[in-house]
Amino acid sequence: MLGDIVVRLYDETPIHRDNFVKLVKEGYYDGTLFHRVIKDFMIQGGDPDSKGAPAGKMLGVGGPDYTLEAEIKDGLFHKRGALAAARQGDEVNPERRSSGSQFYIVWGQVYSEGQLRQFSKQLKMQKVQAVFNTLAAEHRDEIMQMRRNRDRAGLQELQDRLAAEAQQQAADYAGLNEEQQKIYSTLGGTPHLDGQYTVFGEVEDGLDVVEMIQSSATGRGDRPVDDIEMRISVVE
């Protein structure tokens, strides 16, 4: 046994908090593995298929028969020790719904001021794109009608208008705020994941254990060569 990791769940993400507590009380996670570990990035677990999984078995697609509504909050970010929900990619999961059980704990890196400025630009672009996608969804019927009518001029005009509106709505979004920049430049984390996944808790004790796990030797599929099994309980 490598040791204990104590996490605090956020009240700001009640859907994820309550689901995690429910699964823990059911013993859902007991015997599961940290099945995906990437050094200087994160450790991932919560796949029920990892219980007793033979060596070499590919893991990472298991879970309950439901997903969770995203609870992505600007003030909750991927600092070192953050607890976040895994999910499928945007191409099949545009709503960014979370896995019903799989989670990861961030390790990440410490970044320079220049690197953080670049991350801020990327986050700004992602914010504009997200707003544009929302606006486009609201005008879906109009867009589809223009496409059916082959109204290219009208479609381009609408797209330009929505793009300008997205830029305006996201104008006040600065990317990484002062707190994020300070933490990412000292404690560390994974800023490129901000705004993409639901962060629903953080490690309060046991970062040294997280560090040991993220340093583990891994094989195919980033699975640790030596299984790292977990048991989780709720501390009232």
Q: Could you name the key traits of this structure?
A:
two-stranded antiparallel ribbon; alpha+beta; 236 residues; 6-stranded antiparallel sheet
In the predicted model, the low-confidence regions spanning at least 5 consecutive residues are: none
Radius of gyration: 20 Å
What's the rounded overall pLDDT mean? 95
Q: SSE order in H/E notation?
A: EHEEEEEEHHHHEH
Going by helix content, strand content and strand pairing, the class is alpha+beta
Helix amount: 25-40%
What separation lies between the terminal Cα atoms? 23 Å
Strand content: 5-15%
Number of strands: 8
Strand numbers in spatial order across the main sheet: 1-8-5-7-3-2
What does this structure look like?
- With 236 residues, the protein is of the alpha+beta class.
- Helix content is 34%, strand content 14%.
- The protein has helices at residues 14-25, 113-138, 140-148, 152-169, 178-184, 207-214, and strands at 6-9, 34-38, 42-45, 67-68, 82-85, 98-99, 103-106, 199-205.
- The strands form two sheets. A six-stranded antiparallel β-sheet has the order 1-8-5-7-3-2. Strands 4-6 form a two-stranded antiparallel sheet.
- Strand 2 and strand 3 (42-45) form a beta hairpin.
- The model has no long low-confidence stretch (mean pLDDT 95).
Short description:
This protein has 236 residues and is an alpha+beta fold. The chain is built from 6 helices and 8 strands; from the N terminus they run E-H-E-E-E-E-E-E-H-H-H-H-E-H.
